[in-house]
Amino acid sequence: MSGLLRVLRSVRWYVRELTDESAYDRYATHVRTAHPDALLPSRREFERERTERQESDPRQGFRCC
């Protein structure tokens, strides 16, 4: 059972990295260590700002919908 659990954790990690679901976790860790006095935005605010930044940058490709 522990082998299956290890495989499932690995798959979960891979999918989170592939879809960039872990971006907020990495950002929060960076802010807490490098800028401990800074205000950390909520996940929702972070995702909204990230989406706006990506859509405003033409190098990110285009969005059809």
Automatic annotation (TrEMBL):
Disordered: annotated segments: 38-65
Top-rank taxon, per record: Bacteria
Composition skew (Basic and acidic residues), residue ranges: 42-65
Pfam family, one: Sel_put
Name of the protein in question: YbdD/YjiX family protein
